[in-house]
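Researcher: Quick sanity check before group meeting.
Model: Go ahead. Protein one:
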Amino acid sequence: MRVLLVVNSFASSVTARNTVVVHQHLARHHTVQVVETNRRGHATRFAEDAARRGLDCVVSFGGDGTLNEVATGIAGSETALGVLPGGSTNVFARTIGMSNDPAEAVKQLALALDTERIAPIGLGKVNGRYFCFHTGVGYDAAVVRNVERRAALKRWLGHPLFVGAALHTWALGYSRKDPHFSVHIGEEQPVNGYFSIVMNTNPYTFLGKKPLNLSPHANLDSGLSVVTFTSLSALTLLGSLGKAIRSGGVPESKHVKIREDVQAMSVTNDRPFPFQLDGDYLGETNELRFTHEPHAVRLVQPLLS
C-alpha cells in the first residue's frame, strides 16, 4: 500500500525515536512517506492532498486533534484512515482497541494494513466539520479552553492539568446561574443545558486507565448519542462521574437528559457559547448544527478478525 504518515511532533507521546520506529515498522511491507505538521489545520491539508493523489491510507500519529484533522481531510474518499496514539489521552485509538503505547500500536496497525482490515465507519458532523468521537458544548468546552491556555504544560502534566482546569472552571470560570444553550432534536421539547456531549463513540474520555462511559449505546455503526446536563451542581456532576466510572454509563435523571441514535440536531442560544471538537477548542458560536454521516471514512481496524 501507499501510505502517508502524518506526524505531530509536538504531541505528548511523539518522540524522534518512536517516529523512526513507527516509520520503519510500517515500511516493511508498504511504501511510506512521512510529513510533519507545524500548525493547526496542517494535517487536514496533507490528508486532502493524499486523497487527491489516490494514496491507500493516511496514518495519523499524534493526539486526537491531529486524528480529527486527518479524518476531515480524507472523509468521503477511498483513502483509508490509520490511527496511532501520540497524544496524552488518545480517546479514539483506545476506543477501537489499540494499545496506548505507540511501539505496540504500530504492530497492530501494520498487521491490519498487511491483511487489509479496512471497513467504513460513521462520523459526526457539526457546522460542516467532522468529528470522530465527540463534540463538547458549554462547560466541557470551557474546561478545554482553559487547558489550551496552558498548552506548554499539557505535555508534562496531562490528566492532572485537566482535573485542575475542570475544578477552576466550575468554581470561577463558567456561570452556573442560567442555562447556556438549548438542544433541539426533532419535534421534542428543547432541553436547556449547561453542558452537553454529542458522542459518536463511547467512552467520552479516559482518566488514566479508567474509561468515562457516558453512553454504552454510542458506537461507530449507529447515530449520535446526546447527553445533556441541565444542572451543574456538584451533586449532579460527581454522581454522574462516579456512575460513568463504575457502572458503564450515566442513566437519565432529573438533571441528565439522554437521547440515542440521533441523526440530526441543533444547539442554539442568543448569547455565544463555547464548543470543542475531539478535544480541540474551536471558540464560541450561537448555533451548532449536527448530523450523523454513515460510512464517512474507511477505517483501518486493527482488532477485527
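Researcher: Fine. The other one?
Model: Protein two, sequence then structure:
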Amino acid sequence: MKRIELSHGAGGERMGELIKKYILKYFGDGSADVPLHALDDSAVIDGIVFTTDSHTVQPIFFPGGDIGKLAVAGTINDIAAMGAVPVAMACAMVMEEGFSMEDYEKVVASMAAVAKEAGVEIVTGDTKVVERGGLKDMVVTTSAIGKESKHLKHNFEVAGRKQEWLRDSMLKPGDAIIINGTIADHGIAIISEREGYGFEGEMKSDVAPLNGLMETALKEGGVVAAKDATRGGIANALNEMAEKSGVGILIEEESIPIRDATRAACEMLGLDPLAIGNEGKMIMGVVEEKAEDVLEIIKKHRYGRDAAIIGRVVEGKHVVMETSIGGKRMVEMPVGDPIPRIC
C-alpha cells in the first residue's frame, strides 16, 4: 500500500499497523514511565500524564454536541483513563477562510463550558487559517497534562495489586468488565445528521467529560484498567486490552446497554454496534470482589446511570461474545471505523 487511506486514521487494525510500522520505528525508545510504544490512552513521563488528539468530525455541529465539546471531552477522557486528573489543556485550531464567525464563537463557547464542567483550564493554543477549500470548516487539536489521582494508590490497595497507572495491559482472569452506559450513540448521531437519515427517537451523541466519573470509581477502589471506547467502538477497545494483557474477554450480548433507537438504526444500516465509536464511554477492568460496588457507585453519577457489567476476563487470547440466542461469536478488532470522521 503506497498511500494513506481513511482506514489508517479510523482507530482499528489498519491504524494499528500504520503506527507500529512507521511511528514506533522512529519514536518511543525513551525512558517514559508509560512510553509511546505501550500505545495507551496517554503517556506518562516523570509522573506527568500527557496526551494529544486532533478532531476532524463532520458535521462540526451534531445532536448532543459539536467539535469543540468533542475535542475537550475526548482529551480529558484520555487523561482520566490512566487514573489521572487533568490539570491544563492547550488547543490549536485550523480554520477554512470564510468560516462563519458565529459558528466559531459557538465552538469556543462550547469548549469553555466543557472545560469548566471538568474543572480544567485551557491555558494556551494556536490559530491558523487556510485558503478557501483547503479544508472543510475546521480542525481542532487539543492536548492536556494531568497528575496522578489522589485516589490511585488507595484504588490499587483495594485491588490487592501493585500500584501502577491504569494501563491496558493490567487485566487478569477473573476481573469484571464494566461500561458506564449505552454504546454506539455517538456514531449513529453523526451519520444520521451527516446523511440526513432522520432516524426516529432521540438520537444524540454521548460526548461527555468522564474525569469525575473516573474519580468516583477510583475512590471506591478495585479498578485496574480503563479505556475510552472511541474509534472502533468497544470491539476495538476490548481487543486492545485483551491483546496487551495476554488474556481473553468473554462478554454477554444481553448485558451490553444499547438504546432501542440505536439498535434499530444499526440494523437498518447493516452496522455492528460493537464497532461504532463512542465519545462518553469508559470501559473499566475491575477486580471481581469490587465489581458490584464500583457499578453501584458509578450508576449514581450522571454519566453512569446506564452502567453495566458486560463480561469477565478469562484465560485465552480472544474477545468472545455470548449471543442473545445462546451461541458464541468472535468479536474481531475492526479494520477501520464503519462511520468515518466521527471524531
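Researcher: One line on it for the slide.
Model: Residues 153-330 form a domain with the Phosphoribosyl-aminoimidazole Synthetase; Chain A, domain 2 fold (CATH 3.90.650.10).
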